[in-house]
Design a protein that fits this description.
277 residues; alpha/beta; Nucleotidyltransferase, domain 5; 2 domains; five-stranded mixed sheet; 8 helices; 10 strands
């Protein structure tokens, strides 16, 4: 029984990933977190188990991460989202040295060593203008849904600059641009450009090194990833669209596997010591 699970209880979405004994993703699920974090974790875990065709007792180890990780009652252990992100990035892209994680409420940059350990990290200031929530609020103000952000931005011809360092001030800029006749597509692209500038500055603060891996739900918008690539002047690793939002859960499940192996090795060593006593 060597199946492991990673549960990522994020501020906006909760994700779960099941790894099979060969470290392949066997099941996954995602749902909005809401206010009942423990219930969200249990619900998504059950969905991932169903996706993998497994029962709960078949999972040998569960690792939780995310800001709600301590609310996962069925966890065996928990890790920070920075650690999970580093391991998830290296799971898909072993050469990763810098990770940018753009989430709904936070943005994090970290530099990791060859062993996957986080050596330096920085978080965005406590303002939604540096997170995915700003893009969603901008879209909603203009009458668009979150899923419209990508298609809308790619039709932009000239991004409208959004310079506000605070979500409230930036929203005022959006209002002014609309009143001046700017197109929603150009405003949306301007908001993405603003977010990219903040993300690159954060990466500089951790003394970024290639390879660069970008994770988080916002990366599913093509213009975001392309702008970061252009701004860095280097290639960036992007997980497949169906996996990009699950990277922290993937990292947690990988760490669950390593922990399981450590426990097995410790038990074997203890058994051998008793046999030789």
């Amino acid at each position: 029984m060597n199946w492991t699970a990673g549960i990522d209880v994020g501020s906006t979405y909760t994700k779960a990933v099941i790894l099979d004994p060969s470290d392949s993703i066997a099941g996954r699920a995602m749902a909005k977190t809401g206010f009942r974090l423990g219930e969200a974790a249990q619900k998504v875990y059950a969905m991932a188990l169903a996706d993998a065709g497994l029962e709960e007792e078949e999972i040998a180890y569960v690792m939780a991460t995310g800001y709600g990780r301590f609310q996962v009652a069925f966890r065996d252990l928990q890790v920070t989202d920075l650690t999970a992100a580093a391991r998830g990035a290296r799971f898909l892209f072993p050469g990763t040295r810098t990770v940018l994680d753009v989430g709904g409420q936070t943005m994090k940059a970290s530099r990791i060593d060859q062993a996957g350990q986080v050596k330096m990290f920085r978080l965005n200031d406590k303002c939604a203008a540096g997170t995915g929530a700003f893009l969603e609020k901008t879209a909603r103000y203009m009458g668009y849904a979150t899923e419209d952000i990508g298609p809308l931005a790619v039709t932009s011809r000239s991004a409208v600059p959004i310079s506000g360092v605070c979500a409230v001030f930036a929203e005022s800029e959006v209002i002014n641009h609309l009143s001046e006749g700017a197109s929603p597509a150009d405003i949306m692209q301007g908001a993405i450009v603003s977010l990219v500038e903040r993300s690159v500055q954060l990466m500089k603060r951790v003394q970024m090194e290639p390879q660069f891996t970008i994770i988080g739900g916002i990366v599913r918008f093509p213009s975001m990833a392309n702008l970061i690539k252009d701004r860095l002047g280097a290639d960036v690793n992007i997980a497949p669209e169906e996996t990009v939002q699950y990277m922290n859960a993937v990292g947690a499940s990988v760490l669950a596997r390593r922990r399981l192996e450590q426990v097995a090795a410790r038990d074997d060593a203890a058994g051998e010591a008793r046999a030789n006593a």
